[in-house]
Amino acid sequence: MPGYTTRNESLSIGGHAWRLRVLSDKQQFSDPDGHADRLGISSAQWSLFGQLWPAGRLLAQAMQRFDIAGKRVLELGCGIGLASLVLQQRGADVIASDMHPLAEPFLAYNAALNALPVVHYRQLRWDAPLPALGHFDLIIASDVLYETDQAALLAGVVDRHAYPAAEVLVTDPGRGNSARFSRLLEARGFGMAEERCPMDDRDEAPYRGRLLHYTRVGAGAG
């Protein structure tokens, strides 16, 4: 591809083999028309969407076994789209979203690479309401709380797009901002269950990874 290079990566999720196109390394950068810059994506951040991160793999594993029957699902910060692809393969009603200008073509390429239909995609900025997106029974994300203001921004997305009865599932590699996000969702009527998970083969108990599962039953929820 002009301006940056890619490679294919293979992995297994729930016994199913996946192939993914990812950026060849974290030094890649290409923004010839300044689109990413206008979105506030710096050259240092540009390549982050195109990597297979441990938290993203953990989210995909969770989606392989999650109860999705009758649920409309939104993935935030989908990047290369592995969790949404797993949901698509399972027949879920899923929309993937990101703000990176290359997330959509990478998602489409990875769907084709795995003989799947294109996943529905919407470009979504967390600080810009998008009423046409609608509401969801389940909102998912991986490692999205690495900056201080992201807890409040993510809670705002939940306000706008979660049904009164809804679930939110976030995989997090032990970042401190997850505690603030949990408090914000508690104030919105969500209960939380936390599961400690290994982030990679070198991770030892007590594991640094967290699978944060928030549930709101709906009655009396705001």
TrEMBL record:
InterPro entries per record: Methyltransf_16 (IPR019410), SAM-dependent_MTases_sf (IPR029063)
Keyword Methyltransferase: yes
Domain of life of the organism encoding this protein: Bacteria
Pfam short name (any one): Methyltransf_16
Keywords recorded for this protein, A-Z: Methyltransferase, Transferase
BP GO annotations: methylation
Matches recorded under Gene3D superfamilies: Vaccinia Virus protein VP39
GO molecular function, one term: methyltransferase activity
Keyword Kinase: no
Name of the protein: SAM-dependent methyltransferase
Organism: Pseudoxanthomonas daejeonensis
